[in-house]
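I had to read the description of the data format several times before I understood it. The format is easy to grasp once an entry is in front of the reader. For illustration, here is how one protein appears when written out as sequence plus structure tokens:
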Amino acid sequence: MELNTISGLAIAGVICSVVLSMGVPIALFIAGRVKLKARISSFFIGAGTYLLFAMLLKQLLHVLVIQFCGLNAQSRPWLYYVYAALAAAVFEETGRLIAMKFWMKKWLDFPNALMYGIGHGGVEAILLGGLSGISNLVSMLMINSGAMQNTLTALTKEGITSRAEISELEQNANYYRQKYFDCANALERMKTKYNELKEKCGPFLQALEHSPEVAKLFTEKVKQLFSFKEAQERAEKEARENERQERIKARRSKRGMER
């Protein structure tokens, strides 16, 4: 994939945007502090209010409404735009009301109100204009130097390998997930068998508790029964083995006579 070179005019425009987005709030902060003698805390209260209400609480609402409710600009554009405007108004204005009413109620004068606005709007300009502009500027310089092309080529090659690795990891995950389910089912069956055995052995356990001699005699009889069955099965197995050996000897003798 070939990338077109970015013109110098576009790069200059991005540089001007970054300088204005970051320089103007800083210059206003210095002017407000030096000329108007406003409190520095008013600036940080404004910046913190924007970060809390606009960048955190409003984004949580966006996650709820956009991702979980399915509202987006493609399906219902007008409803989406109305919602976005109302959400911005409610959160930012509520943040200003709380900040002025509780955090700045002792310094509600023009210099501190202006310093609050510089903090509120300045941090928004720095985050949305300055930092994004720096990111765009770095990308433009990488495109013009060819570094972006090399990075995309390397990522494409890694992506082919990564897809194979991801497929293998998914297969391994499915295998171990199935093993887990099999073990869980086996454990559940063992638990069921244990409960059934416990229920069936309840009378024996009660008898063992109240009449240990009778229970011991019963246990010996059961052992003898199993021992008799094991001996009988062993004898039958030996008889079958002897019979098989006799058949083998008979076949060998018959082959020897035919030769």
Observations:
- The two ends are 82 Å apart (CA to CA).
- Helices lie at 8-34, 40-68, 77-103, 110-145, 147-200, 202-210, 212-258.
- The mean pLDDT is 79.
- Residues 147-200 form the longest helix (54 residues).
